[in-house]
Amino acid sequence: MNSATDALKASVIEYCSIIGADPLLVQGAGGNISWKDGDTLWVKASGTWLAEAAEKDIFVAVDLPIILAAIEKGDFSVAPKLRGESALRPSIETLLHALMPHRVVIHLHAIEVLAHLVRVSWQKDFQSLVNTHPNWVTAVYNKPGAELAEAVSLALQNTTNANVVFLQNHGIVIGGADLDEVDQILKIVIDALRTPSCQYCFKQPSVMSLNIDGQTTYHPVSDQAVHQLATEADLFSRLESNWALYPDHVVFLGDFAHTYADEETLQRELRGSANLPELIFIQGLGVFTKSGFSTAKLVQLRCYYDILVRQHEEHGINALTAQQIGELLNWDAEKYRMGMSNKLSDADL
After folding, report:
1. pTM, to two decimals
2. What is the rounded CA–CA span in Å between residue 155 and residue 157?
3. Which of 37, 175, 206, 320 has the smallest CB count inside 10 Å?
């Protein structure tokens, strides 16, 4: 790499460390960033955390012309080819980065944006709240990877100079000539879409542990705000109807919420069970997890909470369908990413 490319990489690493530390922008292994250096696309590796960019080598180099040639032929199943050797895999969203013509591309699950993207009214929201600068397009929900890349490619064909793509029930993609442009656009969009959070009182769970069959112990989650998912009636009611809202939530936390009306119901339903859930919600009491519940899962749980508290009574929600959920849970690429994320995030605990 030349000096200019070296400087860009250093800036990207610094930027990743900054946004990776902000849970309203990045949640664990979620989100990715890339930059183009001639025929090479540098992209975040699957399962790695943006927050760890300064401490770990989280980027891999792939052959850009091979991807672009395949996309030109309508082949979105092309596998990115690594340049050099690495034990890491390129991001699931590598094609998404490649097809954006900008030198720097960032894809985030920013809370203020995602809070709109899960609503029935999401497209109307953007039309009324986001002006024509930046130039943006939308894509309806598609499974991450090849299907999403194809949908975004089609959306970009219908406009010129678009540098923002809003992805239903997923996130935002921003392209720019450099990091400054990308960051400026991100701030404009977030300011335009900011939603006041519903205000609830914090409530410490009255029990410090729950024991099932004298063997498995559940402990309250350390994030006090998250307990409101169980202690606030309106949030608890959404757990069943509005659980599967976006890919990362499903991949890390499963296809449905394990909810219980009270501790007695919990004991009755789980007693003797050979497959106890990792995460449980007890109405009026709190949110509890088994030992070993990973940091990667905890940050996704907080993300879900941050999305729900931005939904008001008038907001209808679009949850993922059973078919869409099944596609995510039975996908080897996502199993790999979750495994890598859990391993990397808990390595230093």
Report:
1. 0.92
2. 5
3. 206
